[in-house]
Amino acid sequence: MTNSATNSSIRSSIIFASIGAAIAATAFMTESAEAKTYQTFSVGAWKGTVQVDAQTGQFTHCTGSARYRSGIKLIFSISRNQKWGVGFSKDSWALNQGSTYNVRYQVDRRIIRSGQATAMTENMAMIRLPGSSRLFYEMRRGRLLKVAAGNDVLKFSLKSTNRLLKSLLRCSVANRNLVANVGNNTPLASNEPFDDVKRQPVATTQNDTKVEWMSETRQRAIALMKEVGVKISFVSPQESPALYRNYDTVWQMGKFMGTMRVFPFADGNDIIETFVKVERSRCEGSFETRSKPSSVNGTPVQMASAICVKSDGSQWSAFYAVYPRSNGTNYMLTAFTATATLPDTLKIGEYLTKIAVRQASSSEYTTRSVRVIKY
Fold first, then answer.
1. Rounded to two decimals, what is the model's pTM?
2. Cα dist from 10 to 92, 139, 145, whole Å
3. What's the CA gap between 177 and 332, in Å, rounded?
4. pLDDT score recorded for residue 168
């Protein structure tokens, strides 16, 4: 890969050199103080890693990095809560850990955005990126990333970032329940799609954003079921901590289990494709899936269904729908069952989606009025 940082950008090189290293060394988008590489993989010229908390072994984030001819390493990272960022590192940099720098960044000739770079170590720094499906698309499809501090500009080719970012998104979803043995890299726990067995809770700290999403989606579910006229029973984070690592709200509705979550970035196609691929890998039997773009009152919706039939004849089916929330973010609504037929799953899923999408676009259900619910 090539890098065309200006020769006069010594100061910006110092600023950005530590960005990438910090991302690789610490779980910068989680509450974990230290991260450890659990697995590695490759996507073209990009080197990927699966990171876990060095103390608990709980999955934290996936990273992908590439070193450019200038010696600077460009790093992308997506956490288990789908927070993402971009970082830069270089061995010769000497940063003051904890220092912050105002930066501007741009993909090709698109929107110029402002952000803040944080020096995570002496030779690494990172920029936390906003939850925007538009920016995610630009990073995937763009050709050149420019990052500026003052009058100095660093430029990076974005070759193969489409494959990389889709792989990182899939990695963050596939490993969301991973708890590794940090001593010998042996997995300790990983839930199957409908395994709601109460396991020993993994110690987690919920940040403010997660709590807000949990409150928002819970109230969305209450409004949804009130209009449908069906009683539901919410599953608490204490009852099923593993499910709440995947979703923001979980409820039981007869023979169906429903969930809702906020996706801060990525478009509907990416989200659906990611979840379907993960569930396919976990199906111990024949697996079929269908997906289709749709719309509700002019609002674009991506829907998909999946069914897994095991060798013993047992089966489970699932319905997924992704629809707009606000500011380039999305909701994902799901319905799972291990007893109903696929047509029944599709029927209930599509019915709930039509109401949920209409409510999401209504001023009566704006997120501004969301109150925090304590579990």
1. 0.67
2. 11, 25, 18
3. 18
4. 93
